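Researcher: Re-running this chain for the archive, since the previous output was lost when a drive failed. Same request as before.
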Amino acid sequence: MSTFSKVYLLKSRKKDFAQVELVAFVVTIIFILMGIVAIYVSGTIKTFADEIPSENAIREQLLNKGENSKIFDRNGQLLYTFKDPDRDREYITIDEITPEIIAAVIAIEDQDFYVHQGINYVALVRAAITSLDSRGERLVGGSTITQQLVKQILLTNEQSADRKIREAFLSLIVERDYSKDKILELYLNTANFGGRVQGIRTAADVYFGKSVADITVAEAVYLIAMVQSPGELSPLFSDDKELAASLLKSRQEVLLNSMQGLDKINAYLNTADKEFLRIPGRPSLDSADAKNIKIAAALKESIVVKFFSESIDAPHWVFYVRSVLRGNPYNLSINDLYSGGYRIYTTLDLELNKLGEEKVRSGVERWGSVYGFENSSLVSIDARTGEILAMVGSKGYSLQSDPSNRKFDPKVNVSLSKQTLGSSLKPWVAYLAFNSGRYQPGSMIEDSEQVFYGNYRPKNFDGRFQGEMTITQALLDSRNLPFLKLLYGMGDSSLGNLMKQIGYAPENSYGLASAIGGVDETLLDHTAAYTGFANGGQAMRAQSILKITRANNEVIYNWSPQVKADLNRQAVGQVNAILGNKSYQPGTYSLKFVGNQKLAGKTGTSDGNVDTYYMGYGPKVVTGVWCGNNDNARMSSSALGSTTAVRIWNDYMRGLFSLRPELGQPGSY
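Model: Regenerated structure tokens:
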């Protein structure tokens, strides 16, 4: 008699009364459930049976299941395809699948796979009891490998009692028509391992650059561990790859530790004898075959994932859009995007974005060393609609990062990071003053020292005071005290209320210092708010998605422009007349204008020369530029919006009007 037979016969005689009681209880529950199911599916058995496709049909569904979703720019230029780096999805037979992989999938997904007939009633009851006993804190799955296969190939992800009953019934039919080895083969060929990686053969190659035959126990458990939630656990395809890698490694270690105590899994690993897998439950085997030698070794093995690089047009934009698609009103999951076949048409103009990338990079290379900054960001928006035309998150997404240099991080999209706005916020204080009816551009205001609220003693950037001046002159010269006095007189909350209306962060606290830009906002929100000046009175909601269709061209989302706030057009016109004054061009202020284009704008420099801005606009387009360092290191004392950001803005706008002359308009504000 074989070792397996001796061990199994020995253990089979050791059933006690408690186990018999449990079996009787489970059988009772099963008969009740089967009665309910029989009543429910009465008259539909033939329909369900007819839904089982042939093996060839299943194979065809496997190879063609799902379609890549794609992101396009506004002109139909492909920006990104949701896909894996390896397009080969070769089918692998059960004979080619090693004991390491089979042991991993059986131990993790369905320990009684070779015992049950498609539905593990004991596991279902155990899952229910565990979940109830823990009051929902521990949720244990009860689906067998067969049920998971049925859900992957034959059913949708609909969460309903009808779908669960169909799943159970079809699982019984699949078990009747296919062998256990064939079911396991199909499962391992349809399992998703993140992104478009389908099947264990592709997963082995994509993650480890190996054939299935060379996958170790540690690697097999690592791969199978991500099957239940590949969108969140894949270190290659999840949104937060670093977090996913950490979570997956922890899960792999927990699973390996659990497997040490599974005698039948260890015995199968050591002997490749599937008879061990046909033992029900979790038996204790008195055999040298059951030693956990391979699992113990796997716990000491380091996992090295083969990371790959992919070329993406407008990468900061693509990853921004990916995050937008997962929220309202789109609510597309990662799995939807990987296999739903959606066509996402965005507002981006790829040609303008490439222009922006070029000008940001060359601007940092030319002026960064002069003024002490190593990064820059740019956002360009259609002032009439709020459509984002360009988003450049850094001087170069694909540039190498230096761990010792925290001033530049290529992957961080600075246009979505909050930075201090500086004087680029003063036009909104001027707007409030004119809108109140108490002030005009020619109204006089003192540029003199004043202490606010007992201890707030602000200064001008040059440390001097110029006395009485008009609001026009104060805005052109970007004096601090006049605007603090204006806001103080109108009430600190007035600016905060306006900013929330026109699209700035509603959670921010806007105090008196906001008058001179002492508040952190994103460049994207800042640029979108300036559409209210550019178009003459309507602050537009920034928009990234124009249209979403299915692969069959069915439109499921179509966008139309949305106004965030209607502004006082007269007050807006007064601000524009000041900021668009072409006769005022000291120093580099001539860079605020391009040829005969109708343009206006405002510089900004935060306290300590940490951030510099230029927010420039015409009637049809607004472009905001930020310069600084990722770690908020100070730039040189000569780094101002007028010496840094405006240079990059001017280079970009010249190119924009050359590429897209329709976005220009001659004249003056």
